[in-house]
Every structure is written in structure tokens, then in C-alpha cells.
Amino acid sequence: MTLQDARTPENGANGDEKSQIGWHKGYVSGSRPDLRVPVRRVHLTNGKDVTLYDTSGPYTDPNIETDVRRGLAPLRENWIIGRGDTEEYSGRPLRPEDDGLKHTSPRGGLKNLDAVFPGRPRQPRRGREGAAVTQLAYAQRGEITTEMEYVALREKVTPEFVRDEIAAGRAVLPANVNHPEIEPMIIGKNFLVKVNANIGNSAVTSSIEEEVEKMTWATRWGADTVMDLSTGRNIHTTREWVLRNSPVPIGTVPLYQALEKVDGKAEELTWEIYKDTVIEQAEQGVDYMTVHAGVLLRYVPLTARRKTGIVSRGGSIMAAWCLAHHQESFLYTHFEELCEILASYDVTYSLGDGLRPGSIADANDEAQFAELRTLGELNTIAKRHGVQTMIEGPGHVPMHKIKENIDLQQEICEEAPFYTLGPLTTDIAPAYDHITSGIGAAMIAWWGTAMLCYVTPKEHLGLPDRDDVKTGVITYKIAAHAADLAKGHPGAQEWDDALSDARFEFRWEDQFNLALDPDTARAFHDATLPAEPAKTAHFCSMCGPKFCSMKISQSITDRFGGDEGSTPEEIEAGMLEKSREFAESGNRVYLPLAN
Amino acid sequence: MTLQDARTPENGANGDEKSQIGWHKGYVSGSRPDLRVPVRRVHLTNGKDVTLYDTSGPYTDPNIETDVRRGLAPLRENWIIGRGDTEEYSGRPLRPEDDGLKHTSPRGGLKNLDAVFPGRPRQPRRGREGAAVTQLAYAQRGEITTEMEYVALREKVTPEFVRDEIAAGRAVLPANVNHPEIEPMIIGKNFLVKVNANIGNSAVTSSIEEEVEKMTWATRWGADTVMDLSTGRNIHTTREWVLRNSPVPIGTVPLYQALEKVDGKAEELTWEIYKDTVIEQAEQGVDYMTVHAGVLLRYVPLTARRKTGIVSRGGSIMAAWCLAHHQESFLYTHFEELCEILASYDVTYSLGDGLRPGSIADANDEAQFAELRTLGELNTIAKRHGVQTMIEGPGHVPMHKIKENIDLQQEICEEAPFYTLGPLTTDIAPAYDHITSGIGAAMIAWWGTAMLCYVTPKEHLGLPDRDDVKTGVITYKIAAHAADLAKGHPGAQEWDDALSDARFEFRWEDQFNLALDPDTARAFHDATLPAEPAKTAHFCSMCGPKFCSMKISQSITDRFGGDEGSTPEEIEAGMLEKSREFAESGNRVYLPLAN
């Protein structure tokens, strides 16, 4: 593989200019010219480079002109067409109610949906009759797709390993044939731990533009996938804008939109309305869908005396439906039909945990684990249909009950990727639930969770704004990377080592540029010692020059570190010699302390 | 025990008025009139009260007038005098260099030290000849002190249990006889996990007033102890202000001041200068002192080829001294003499981990564990002298290496309280090291660490300001409480349950008042839905009224929850009945969904 670098000038072309100094977007090339895997290359002042995983998409490449009104280039289009197993078709006609506009007042007007996203119109695509077009089906047949090769370069493993993990159902590569814009990524316990960021407007607040901006902002800081959880007006159009501009897989909960179509009356939901919504979203290009098919009628009473009942939106809607009709969930009874639909677009299942605990008191209870066992059954059925599948997990769980969750999920679901929300390890800190959950997230990821759904500081209190999205993503990247280290993921520690070397050698600019958030690290440093010389100073404001342990310790390393091959005994002997020199010269060994 | 409540009016008298609505300072009384343990009582809108541990001192009691220029009332003075085993004495004379003023220019003037803290002058106190005046000595003799009874009320355990844990060396009750102002607290793995906050000026920045303000601010948010790590000018005076105004035990690292006295030249340190500094600080009332007596000459070469050498300030100073003289550390060779000094004031040892790892790469290495074994030996010696002792721990440690630390410490140090910094679970996130370390802190506390030393967002970058102190304390209170839950500490979950009940019942004001940080929780909520009616609304801005899972789920609980004794089968039967009613009435079961 060769490294083709899109050299970034001192100031990047994409808005956030300051943060581009010291690093630039590079590409690792694969077996074909259009297979170029983006990386973040950090240039250190000691002449070395560090290459990091990059989720930010074309937005951070100054050589690529992006326009949110046109969308990203369809990177995968030729790969999909080239396989010859899909076909374009006219698609489901768009209807005003797709945007929740059924009750729009005459004054508000009814917009032409086609005009709302100005990018090029396109026909939806699906698998040809009889063709199995999912990455799982390809892997099971022994084929290595371009997407798999892309992912292998990204993860620094072989394409065969990627294929085998997908074939075993231990990993998913969410990539709807109608979302050619994405840069492929993989979710599985034997790969880097991934992070999902939720965005989405609601009836109460926010706009389309804000959601698209939140999506690019989230991927800028490291979100590997984004879920659009919009529930209000313009739900179809918002999703179209997000999909066409997203370099990462997009997930949704189709039930939310289906509920909008029946004006919020859960009992009026039907399989037909739900199915129509799934097709609508699959045609748009949604890569994975949360389906709460494990909330069965008989499980609902198990939640009645919980402290916090059902806290999943999808779970509570389906529970309400089951109770109102006293019938089994249509998601469960029509599950095989749903598999066929998802398979024809390669939409990945995210089997939702509708009965996840919403408080410490409810963790690991009968309701939660009953649903998990049903998700295990559904996972087996989905795999049989060639549908890629991951399983969603809790929720609120105290530390000592976390491991039971992942162990049980891995056993019941045949090692299918676990995709967890947190878990939150205590309920007492609203406004800090990124932290209460970041603790649980790091632990459960160490023990095998493949993807973490972020939690922002606004959890339980309101919708996240731009700052909250960033804080949530950074917190979860920390949890994911801490887990990568603990799992001994090959190469994970190189990043820590590079930063620690920079720290020990007082290369402040390198520390900033290697940091998960260079902007904030630099700002914090400058808040106390803003002068430019302080960036090369051999101390910082914490201890001042006299007390700097690193500075004292460096002189120990310099004087007594010895050669690569020295034993501690040899070093000790050298140390004694140095001590004599000191005594004889009457001079000071530790120059740094003389400051 | 009775609850004497210092009723707080709607607006508290102490500055931060808004946060006082809905809770007030209460007291739990013990066996004598002057034994009143402060608690935070939260009044819920459903008429119930929740009682929480309170570290904020007299500052949050509107019935007590405080004046930082006079200091707090000496709560324990009569208890100490009453024991009759200590005596006042003239004390060590104060010298200008105690404040690092040796080189003050004539223009700057040399202030009269006695005048700098205007509070009442007092004589220092120490144990009478032959008297063993430490809480450990009392406990070993089977005595229950008033301090132990105070702590028992605070922790909701028996005084006998407190005494036995101290006697076994499994817990410490840091309480210098010269610090009568403190509200006693205990540190041990069988008690609530505690949090320490570091403050301190340095040569580069900050002032006395700022440090006192940081101390009261830290305790306001839950810091159980505070370490004054000042290294610059006015070091003695800063400490005097902090001690006289602190309701929590104060820790220091005497080596820092000793180094100031030799103008920052480590090799010029002597046992005499160090001892003089320890006595100076013990006379002021420092409750525990970090002593890096485990950094032995022969361990220094073990650090020479580390990635980040020695990162402890105290450790690097002692390493420098050992190397310069090629002699064993005076802290080690004079350890028994130091024990006698500390014992006479009841200063608690915090045996410092001078060789703790400063990067993921250096975790659990030979240098670190060699020092730990020496700390184990010193712990045994200290206990023999009746000196209370805790052991400091790392540092930077990846998740999979954390448990080894606490297990080894508990084994080597006979279950002496472990007092850990973090550990930080990755090096890649400067500006977020409260989070990288909060993850490790929660885990190591679950596994047995007794006190966590906080890390602020400014770690590695600069000195924490007011906001950083708060963020650090809150993050660590989360870690500590998550650990209390995981350890199954009696009563810990009551707090979570109360908050979760409030959440499920849409008692927004109760949620805010029960939150670890009511101000921020309220502000975040108001940012999206500021209107007063939203505080009682049965939904929030996250999902809007139609999608509120809690609202849907509540109606399930209301309709099908059954009586306390109902079985799931009975509930299921009731559910079927309700479903029939619904069908017959032709009406909607889920009223909330109709909104």
C-alpha cells in the first residue's frame, strides 16, 4: 500500500483552520484507483509522522470541494454497479405525509419534496430477483468485496480476516446499496471499538440545517456512525439531507416515522404502514435500522412494577400497541418478511432493546433478559436471510452488573456485534451523563461491545447542541480507545506512546496535534501560559520550572539511561561514576534544578 | 439520633442562592451537644425527604456566620482538650523563609508572618511525653473517640465498626490535634469512597485568596479532603488560611516547601531541613502528609528507560537527591524518627508513589511495584508507631492492568487504605483527563480503593481554575458513587432510586435538587424548555409529548401494575381485561398518545 497525501497548507480550506496546523488528510491506496482510505497524518516536530484513523470524510480534505446542497460524491457507486446484482427501479412514490405534513395549514403550503433537497435526483436501487446482495451473503460465499478491502486497510488487517468475521456474524459492514456516499467501516469485537452519535430534530426544537451540521460536526470529532432520530416535521427531507452528506453509515428507528404517519396514535400503527416506512427509508439509503422486535406482549407485564418502566421510545410504542390490541407485536410476527426487505437493500439490523433498564434499580431484570433471549432467536433468523445484524444493549447498569450483560449477549446472540448505550453507572448526575455512561461504556467495550452509542451532557434534560455533540463524541472516543488498549488491539498503544513521548520531551505542539481534541488542549495550555515561548518551554504552569518532575527525570534518563542493551546493574555502576564526577567537580548534576 | 434542622429560607444566605431552593443543611445529633453531623436534606415535592452526605462545612448553614479572616470555629477543640493527653507548647519560631521570602527584594518588604492571617493566635499542641494521641492508638486500645462516633453517624455504621476498622489499619481518620476546625471523616474500603481535590499556587500563577476560595468551592461540590500543593511564595501563609478555613482534612507534600527553603536545589536538601518543615506544618494542623519514602536509590535506574521516567514531583526530587549523593533517601533512613513526629500530632501518612507510571507504556513496571513493596514495609513500621497510614497509587494504567494494582497493594500493605490518582486509562486526551481518569477511578474504587485523588480537565496543561475544580470534583463524585453502588454499600442506591422515581414521575424540580449538580442540571433543562410550565410537563424536549417513553410507560404501570403482591400472571390477566374494556368502549387506552 502506498500513501498518497493530500497535502494541507498551513491553513486548511474547511472552516476550522487553526486545528489543521500540524496534521493533514492523507490516503492509503488499495487495489484499485478509486479505493483510497482516508487517514489523519500528524506531523511531529521531530520529523516523525503518526497516522490515525479518520472519520471526518471529504470535509477535511482541502482538495475536495463539498456543497451540502449537492451532497458528497457517490464513492461506492461503481463498486455497487460493478457487482451487477442490483437494479434501479422507480421506487415508492413520495407522499406529503412522509414529511409529517399531513396537517400543514394552507398558509404553510405543501412543498414539493423533490425540490427540498436540491442534489441530483436518483432512482433507488435494490437486489435483483434472487440475488443476495448483502455483505454477509458475499462473505458467506467467500467473496471479498471492495468494501471489505477498504475496511481491511482502515483497520490494518487482511481482507480475508474482514470477510471471515462478517461471514461468522461477528462483525457487520453497514452499507445500503442506496448510500454510495459512505466510506465503509466495520463493527465487530475484533476490530477497533466504534462510536455512534445520535442527532435528530423533534417536534419541539431544531431544524434541518442544524441536524446536517451536527452530523458533519460529530464525524469531524470521530463519530463512526450517526443515527438520525428525528421525530418532528420534515422527517423525510431531513434524512435525505443527512444521507446525501454523510461519509458514515446512517441508522434510524423507522418506527418513529411510522408513528408520525398515524398522527402519534400507537394503536393505529399497522404492519403495512411500518413496512412502507422501512421501504421508504431503505430507498433513501439508511444503512442500519433499529427494530424493537423483541418487545413481546408477554414481556410487558414484567415491566409494570419497575422503577422506571420502559424507557426506550420504540419499546414503549410497541408495548402500547401490544397492550391496546392484546396481540403479539407485528414486528415479531412479520420478522421474516422484514428480513427479505432489508436483505434486498443490504440494510443492517440493529435489534433494539426496547426493555432496557432506565435506572440502576431495574438493571439486569427479568424483562431485560427475556427480551435479550428473543433477540438471540431473531439474530439467527436474520442471519439465515443473509441480513447483517447487531444487537442493542443497555441502559442504566451499575458496574458490577455490566459484565453479565455482554457475556450473556455474546452467548445468546452467537457473538453478534453488541451495540450499547452507555451503560450509565449511576442515576445521580443529570448534566454529566456523558461521564456516568462513559465509565460503563469503557468497561463494556473492553469486555466485547463492538460499538458504543454516545450519551451527551444533555441526556435526560434536553436536545444536544453543537458543544454537547462534541463533548459526547470525545468522551466516547476516550472510552473506545481505552477499551482498544485494554483489549490489546494491535497498534492502539502507538497513539498513546507518541503523545507520551511528546509530553516527556516537552514538544507541546506535538502534544496538541496528537490530542483527541487539539483545539481544547491548546486553549487550556494557553489560558495559563499564553506566550509563544511557553510552547517550547521545558516546564508548564502546573509546577513551574523548579518542580517539574519531567525535567528532573529527563536528566536522569539522559545521564543514566545507558545504551539500549544496558542492564540495571550497568546503569547503577554508571550512576555511581557520575556521582563521583559530581563530587569532584563540585558542580551541580541537576542543571534543571538550578533555574 | 435526632434530626435538628437548620431551616434554610427559600434563598440561602451564602451567595449561591438559587441552588439552595429545595434543600437545606440539617444535623444529626450524637451523644453530646457539640456532636452534630451535617447532612444535606433534599425536600421532595411529594413530601418525602432524602438525606445526603454533606462535605460543605458551615458555609452552607445560613445560621452560622463565617469570616475567612477569622477562620472556622474549632469544633474539636474541647474533644481534644478533654482527652487530657496533649499539651500546648511554644512551638517552632516562624521564619521569613517559611514563606519562601528569603530573596524578597527590599522594595517588596518582609511581612510580619503573624499578621498575615488575622485570626486569633494560638499555641500549637502535641501529645504529652509518653502519650499515644493518634486515632489509631485510641482504637488499638479499644477506645471510641468522639471523632469516631461522629464518623459513625456520618457513615450510618456503629462506632464500634469504625473503631475496629481503624484499629486494623484498614481505615484512617485524619485529624491533626492542631486542626480542630475539621468535621471528622474516615477513609477506608469499607466506608463510602472519598474524593480529594488538589489546590495550590505555584511560582507561576495564582494567589492566597484564590486558593482559599478553591478549597471552599471544592468542598461545596463534595471534596472530602483537600491537598494544598502550593510551591511558590507565601507557602506558609497560604496554608494557614486554608487550614483555618477548612472543614475537611488538609494534606500536603512537605518536600515541596523544604525544597523552597533550599532555593530549589534538590541536592542541598537535608533531613534537618525536611524535619523542620514537617514540624512547622504539623504545628499548623496539616492532617496528612505525602512522604515519598519508597523511592530508594536502587530503584532509580529502573526508571531510566521508561517512556516518561519519573512523573511525581516528590519522586523526582528524591531521585535527584539520591543520585546526587549516591546515598539512600533520608526519608527512608529517618523513617522511624519521622513516625515519632507524626504520631505526636496525629498526622496521617500518605505514603507517596514517587515512581508511579506517567504513561500507559510504563504501567505496572518493575520500578512501580518495587516501590510498592517498600511502601508495604514502611506501612508496617508506621503502624507499629501508632501512625495512621494510607498508600498512594497510580497514575496512568490501562483498564486491564488496574485490578493488579489494587490487589497487590491490598496484599502487600495489609489492606491499608489505597489512595489513587485516577488512574488515567489512556494518554491521548489532554483537556479531558478528568474523564480518562474518571473511568479508571470508578473501577479501582469498585475493587477497593478508599480515596480517589481528583484530576481536572487542566491536568498536564495548566493549573485548574474554579470551573476546573468543580468539574474535577463532580467527575470524581460520580466515580466514587458508582463504586459505592458496585460495592453494594448500604444505602448508596437510595439516592439513585430517589432520583429515578422523580424522573419517572416527571418531578423535574426534585430531579434537579437531587442531582449531584443541581445548578447545571436545571440550566441544561431550561436551555431548551425554559418556560415554568415545562418544569411540571409530562415530557421533555428530547422526544416531545408524543414520543415520551416514560409517559407511555407510566400509563402501563398505572393500568397494569396491579397491587404490590400481584404475580406477572395476575397482571397479565388484568391486562387482557383492560384490553377488552378498550375494545368495548371504542375508546383509546393510551390517553397520553392522544396529545
From TrEMBL, chains A, B:
It is an enzyme of class 4 (lyase). Zn(2+) binds at residues 396, 460. It catalyses: 5-amino-1-(5-phospho-beta-D-ribosyl)imidazole + S-adenosyl-L-methionine = 4-amino-2-methyl-5-(phosphooxymethyl)pyrimidine + CO + 5'-deoxyadenosine + formate + L-methionine + 3 H(+). Substrate binds at residues 198, 227, 256, 292, 312-314, 353-356, 392, 419. Keywords: 4Fe-4S, Iron, Iron-sulfur, Lyase, Metal-binding, S-adenosyl-L-methionine, Thiamine biosynthesis, Zinc. Residues 90-102 have a biased composition (Basic and acidic residues). Signal peptide: none annotated. Residues 24-87 form the ThiC-associated domain. Catalyzes the synthesis of the hydroxymethylpyrimidine phosphate (HMP-P) moiety of thiamine from aminoimidazole ribotide (AIR) in a radical S-adenosyl-L-methionine (SAM)-dependent reaction. Its EC number is 4.1.99.17. Binds 1 [4Fe-4S] cluster per subunit. The cluster is coordinated with 3 cysteines and an exchangeable S-adenosyl-L-methionine. Residues 1-32, 90-130 are annotated as: Disordered. Its cofactor is [4Fe-4S] cluster. The keyword Nucleus does not apply. NCBIfam families: PRK09284.1, PRK13352.1, thiC. One of its GO terms (molecular function) is phosphomethylpyrimidine synthase activity. It comes from the Bacteria. [4Fe-4S] cluster binds at residues 540, 543, 548. This is Phosphomethylpyrimidine synthase. Pathway: Cofactor biosynthesis; thiamine diphosphate biosynthesis. Belongs to the ThiC family.
